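User: Reviewer 2 asked us to show a designed sequence for the structure in our supplementary figure. I'm pasting the structure tokens here. Could you produce the per-position amino acids so we can include them in the response letter?
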């Protein structure tokens, strides 16, 4: 019997928060030159229904997408009701399943899987397959060598081959030989289309069912593959090749437990080395998918270093109102080093509701200005619920800060947010209420905080993301007679550009106006601050999954009170790694 080029499905993921389906489609488009972006979008949606919220095009975070082979993607796209302007070619009619008993129905929930047709050999043959990626980038497409047919036999005994009790008619021989020839030249869809109309005649014959199931698997018709291959292993329970391919079909459909059961049965049969290599790749891909989909927590560590021209954000003047300022209240520059760690967790409360939380710790040491060394501890939790393209979330956050190893401030805040997501744009609004408390020496700075923010995000091009946020708020001084009440207006624009697959550049420009209604040292105070920041997240530059992030920030704070006029430049880098 012919063997199938059984390969583990290629995965993209896990999907990160903030990624859009249109952005992922644009990133994957070079792998599917024959499809429009609209067709690829529909193919990914049809192939991964579990990765979306309801029947929308809104992706769930932290899921892995199975990537279709190009021919399977086209098949999925052609089933969708796309207008002609969004298609690469006019829609064509696809073969319909037979209504005869034993024929599998086309449910439209097929998931894509990378597979290469193989020439006729006995049992299971190992086909080269790229190792599934563990990061949020797609695995590399197979090379010409990887895509070439292989003829390694995977079963040494004829008892593993499905055979008829009687010699099959010559017509069936010719039919199976032609299907195998089509698969051997990489045209599995044509092989599937050739065999599909014959289900009513030959369905139940193990030779036919195996050829049909193998063709369906290679063509991405996973429901058909499962039904046909189940019939084969029922009659031939020790046929390792059919069991391996049945496991792959279950895996592509998201039936992880059934896939693992079939893989473990094949392993127990002690197949030859070539088949074991294919099995190992399949089980590794399955383990990676289960890790991505089932992991309820993530952790990260980071280290940073750089130089700050004004670590204490102070004036260059050495006097104010005729008084000599303490050196610690004058502009001071210093190199710095730092380290931090964090953990986040998520717990689904319902199909469309989730509880998330996390905690983190960061410390920064300034080698020439230890009096501003600071440590920040923080924690948060949030409950979020989604209805199709709308979400609502309620969260709480807490922090505790040290400066020069002594308590400086603490704070708590509650935030109610809501948003609406489109294919290439998203709009959010948030209302935040909190408190900020300082140590006894500076408790006059204690304030109650209230703010409202409206933000919009837009993806005008496949690798470009633009954002804008407007915030209005107030700090109300808690101590009678305190001068630290203020009204705040802030505006920030952001631009993110995926210049290379492993390099993303982020920039932002901000403006903040702080108006103090009460006299400050007998003077009217109003601060106006401009900030400019640029950074780059560079994956794969460092080994072992570390991400290198160089960054630079400039701040210019102008004030009607000279004590608070300053500028500041911070240049550094961060290396971070997730677990």
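Assistant: Here is a per-position design you can include in the supplement:
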């Amino acid at each position: 019997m012919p063997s199938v080029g059984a390969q583990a499905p290629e995965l993209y993921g896990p999907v990160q928060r903030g990624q859009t389906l249109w952005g992922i489609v644009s990133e994957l488009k070079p792998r599917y030159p024959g499809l429009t972006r609209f067709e690829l979008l529909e193919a990914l949606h049809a192939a991964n229904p579990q990765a979306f919220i309801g029947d929308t095009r809104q992706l769930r975070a932290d899921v892995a997408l199975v990537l279709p082979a190009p021919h399977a993607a086209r098949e999925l796209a052609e089933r969708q009701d796309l207008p002609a302007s969004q298609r690469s070619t006019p829609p064509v009619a696809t073969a319909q399943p037979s209504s005869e008993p034993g024929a599998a129905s086309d449910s439209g929930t097929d998931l894509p899987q990378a597979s290469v047709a193989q020439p006729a050999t006995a049992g299971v043959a190992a086909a080269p397959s790229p190792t599934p990626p563990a990061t949020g980038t797609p695995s590399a497409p197979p090379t010409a060598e990887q895509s070439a047919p292989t003829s390694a036999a995977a079963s040494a005994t004829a008892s593993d081959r499905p055979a008829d009790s009687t010699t099959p008619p010559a017509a069936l021989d010719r039919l199976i030989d032609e299907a195998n020839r089509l698969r051997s030249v990489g045209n599995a869809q044509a092989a599937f289309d050739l065999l599909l109309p014959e289900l009513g005649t030959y369905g139940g014959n193990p030779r036919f069912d195996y050829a049909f199931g193998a063709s369906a698997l290679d063509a991405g018709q996973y429901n058909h593959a499962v039904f046909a291959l189940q019939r084969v292993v029922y009659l031939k329970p020790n046929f390792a090749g059919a069991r391996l391919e049945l496991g792959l079909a279950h895996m592509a459909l998201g039936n992880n437990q059934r896939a693992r059961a079939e893989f473990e049965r094949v392993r127990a049969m002690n197949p030859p080395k070539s088949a074991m290599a294919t099995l190992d790749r399949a089980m590794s891909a399955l383990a990676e998918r289960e890790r991505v989909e089932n992991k309820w927590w993530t952790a990260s560590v980071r280290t940073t270093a750089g130089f700050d021209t004004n670590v204490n954000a102070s004036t260059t003047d050495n006097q104010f109102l005729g008084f000599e300022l303490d050196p610690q209240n004058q502009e001071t520059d210093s190199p710095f080093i730092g380290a931090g760690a964090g953990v986040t967790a998520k717990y689904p409360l319902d199909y469309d509701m989730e509880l998330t939380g996390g905690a983190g710790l960061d410390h920064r040491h300034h080698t020439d200005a230890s009096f501003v060394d600071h440590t920040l501890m923080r924690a948060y939790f949030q409950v979020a619920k989604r209805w199709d393209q709308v979400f609502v979330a309620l969260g709480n956050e807490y922090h505790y800060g040290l400066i020069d190893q002594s308590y400086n401030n603490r704070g708590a805040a509650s935030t109610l947010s809501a948003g609406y997501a489109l294919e290439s744009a998203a709009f959010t609004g948030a209302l935040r209420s909190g408190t900020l408390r300082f140590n006894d020496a500076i408790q006059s700075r204690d304030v109650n905080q209230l703010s409202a923010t409206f933000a919009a995000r837009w993806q005008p091009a496949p690798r470009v993301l633009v954002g804008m946020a407007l915030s209005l708020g107030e700090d109300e001084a808690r101590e009678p007679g305190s001068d630290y009440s203020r009204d705040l207006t802030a505006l920030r624009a952001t631009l993110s550009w995926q210049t290379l697959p492993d390099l993303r550049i982020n920039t932002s420009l901000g403006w903040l106006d702080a108006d103090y209604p009460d006299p400050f040292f007998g003077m009217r105070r109003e601060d106006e601050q401009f900030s400019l920041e640029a950074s780059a997240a560079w994956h794969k530059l460092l080994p072992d999954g570390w991400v290198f992030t160089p960054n630079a920030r400039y701040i210019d704070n102008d004030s009607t009170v000279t004590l608070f006029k300053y500028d500041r430049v911070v240049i550094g880098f961060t290396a971070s790694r997730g677990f």
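For the response letter, you might also mention the following. The first helix runs from residue 21 to 28. The longest strand covers residues 503-520.
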